Amino acid sequence: MNLTRRLLLINLGLLLAAALLGYALWREPQRLASDSVAWRARAAERGAVLYEDACTECHGVHGEGLVGPALNAPDLLHGEDPGRLPPRLQARGWRGDLPSFLMATIANGRPGSKMPGWAQTAGGPLTPSQIDDLVAFLLTWRDAEPTPSPFARPQSLHQRSAGLGYYLFHGPLGCADCHAFDNAAGVVGPELTGVVARLGRDAVRNAIINPNDHLAPGYAPRIMPETFAYALSENQIRSLLDYLEHPENAALQVAPLERSEKDQALWGKMVADGAGCFGCHTVDGTASDGPTFLGLYGQTRTLDDGVVVVADDDYLYESIVSPSAKQVAGYPDIMDQDYGFRLSEDDIRAVIAYIKTLR
Questions:
Q1: Alpha-carbon distance 324 to 75, whole Å?
Q2: How far apart are CA 59 and CA 26, in angstroms?
Q3: How far is the CA of 301 from the CAs of 104, 207, 298, in angstroms?
Q4: Element (H, E) at 21
Q5: CB-based burial of residue 233 (10 Å sphere; 0-12 exposed, 13-18 middle, 19+ buried)?
Q6: pLDDT for 62-76, tens place per residue?
Q7: CB proximity list for 48: less than 8 A, separation 6 or greater
Q8: Cys staple from 63: which of 72, 74, 131, 211, with CB 3.0 to 4.6 Å?
Q9: Closest CA to 74 of 344, 347, 348, 341
Q10: pLDDT tens for each residue of 22-63
């Protein structure tokens, strides 16, 4: 082979190598993007398992909220302007982005609420990579419309009724996934048809809040969540028992009640307890993360901007449904922003009636 032909082949080889390198460089961003999408998908899959195990009892199977606030909600994941922070983060004055807010909240919990810190550094069980996976799963809801529970949410999550029990059983608590009862076909746990008649309400109540105390024959321990004792209010537990005892009553509509002032205040106390208000607000005047309820009604309040307002019905109502609208000086802006969604109008008015009695 003469020198000219050899040089020609070498040049052709170099050109071919350069073309292949150029193609690889051109494809690299697409490959990285594809790998990134695949990584996020795998992380979200792992996060979905973590969410089911750790979060559904408080936030609902679909993120619709139960004891904890709604996560699959317009003010958190579905802001109108993708370039701006969601309203819930703006209300809290959060300076980071949505993923960092979710990571911080999961890792460190929410002071004054039932939300614990889940990071190992806060005494919880989750590693940093598991928290990343959980956030990846939550962010999958951002790209879709909020998914409602397939079971209609009652007007109040605190007013006792068999209908509320039906909603909890088939919806947020996921009981129907494991138990056969009233058209549910779960097989992981024991069948519950007639369980209250057989065992009595006290025994079934204990099985809900202490599921490993007395196991049904043939069923493994530590399958049922052990969090219902603190995740559910007393009225929610009673509603579950009412539904298990009389499932035929679940379809009955609960009419608004005409209560005396005393009964309205008592109902408001129960709602406040179930909603976690007493985690931040005392009723005896002692200091806490939020203003005490004692003597609050009719009192003047100085806000962060120096404006003085009177704590009347309108002020208390706004403070419940939009707590950051009038922030009292000297207190952190940490109150959940979704009580207007979680509580019915009747619930909110009852809480105000209760606060009026604390003089």
A1: 14
A2: 44
A3: 31, 46, 9
A4: helix 3-54
A5: buried
A6: 887 776 778 888 778
A7: 137
A8: 72
A9: 341
A10: 766 666 566 555 555 667 888 899 999 999 888 887 887 788
- Whole-number Å distance between alpha carbons of 74 and 71: 9
Asked, for residue 36, whether it belongs to a domain, the answer is: no
Q: Answer whether residue 210 shows pLDDT above 60.
A: yes
pLDDT of residue 352: 94
Domain hosting residue 349, numbered range: 261-357
Q: Answer for the pair 126, 117: CB distance below 8 angstroms, yes or no.
A: no
pTM across the whole model: 0.49
- Give yes or no for a contact between 162 and 149, defined as CB atoms under 8 angstroms apart: no
Cα–Cα distance measured from residue 297 to residue 268, given in angstroms and rounded to the nearest whole number: 14
Residue 145 pLDDT: 60
Structure-token match 């979200």, residue found: 44
Residue 174: which of 212, 227, 221 has the closest Cα? 227
Residue showing tokens 């509580």? 343
The structural domain count of the chain equals 1
Q: Is the dihedral of CA 188, 191, 197, 199 positive or negative?
A: negative
Per the CB < 8 A criterion, the answer to whether 40 and 32 are in contact is no
Residue type, 237: I
CA distance 235 to 330: 34
Q: Give Cβ neighbours of residue 67 (< 8 Å, ≥ 6 apart).
A: 57, 58, 114, 231, 232, 233, 274, 276
Residue 176 has pLDDT above 60, yes or no: yes
Reply yes or no on whether the pLDDT at 127 is more than 90. yes
- Picking from 334, 339, 307, the residue whose alpha carbon sits closest to that of residue 322 is 339
CATH of the domain at 311: 1.10.760.10
Beta bridge partners of 322: none
Could you give the CA distance from residue 265 to residue 86 in angstroms, rounded to a whole number? 35
Residue 211 counted as domain residue: no
Whether 281 is in a domain gets the answer yes
DSSP letter at 126? B
Token couple for 45: 């899959």
Beta bridge partner(s), residue 126: 119
